[in-house]
Amino acid sequence: MASENLIIEDANVVFRNFAGREGMYNAEGQRNFCVILDDKPAEEMAADSWNIKYLKAREEGDTPTPYVQVAVGFKGRPPKLVLITSRGKTELDEDEAELLDWVDIAGVDLIIRPYNWSVNGKSGVKAYLKSIFVTVDESALDIKYAEVPELERNAQPAIEGAKLAIESGDDGDIIDAEIVDDDE
Description:
By secondary structure, the chain is mainly beta. The protein has one domain: CATH 2.40.50. It is built from three helices and eleven strands; from the N terminus they run E-E-E-H-E-E-E-E-H-E-E-H-E-E. The protein has helices at about 40-45, 100, 140-145, and strands at about 5-10, 10-15, 30-35, 50-55, 65-70, 80-85, 90, 105-120, 120-135, 165-170, 175-180. The strands form two sheets. Strands 1, 2, 3, 4, 5, 6, 7, 8 and 9 form a nine-stranded mixed sheet that branches. Strand 10 (about 165-170) and strand 11 form a beta hairpin. It is elongated, with a radius of gyration of 26 Å.
């Protein structure tokens, strides 16, 4: 049985469901994703009772691709989720985890912790996410506007509650305008 955490750098992450959406292969609330494995580590993990599965070969003559499903559980030991952009890193909480389902990924480094289980005479190792660092594949516009300050999500516009004083000419054209406080 497995006893040590597994560190995977430059991981190939597929079938992302950090939100825990119900689907054909997923019950509602079960957050998970899969990591594609190389053949040798997959064989070693299978020998240690990890639940290694295989994707069907795409073309005749190709070998099936090994992968492991990784559970993302927030009860007990919540995982560390970190999103990395050119502006820095942001740690995500449980409510923000689903952002990882939609972000374009440039790279992933993660740590999987094994959970040894035994039920009704059967046993194995289930993979749980301990931590994940996801580097975002930023677009040219993301990079161009990276230095523009973000507004707080619930911030009011700067001119809310202010009045606009307009001075018009004889022909109706605006001659002068300024923002004044409500109490003036």
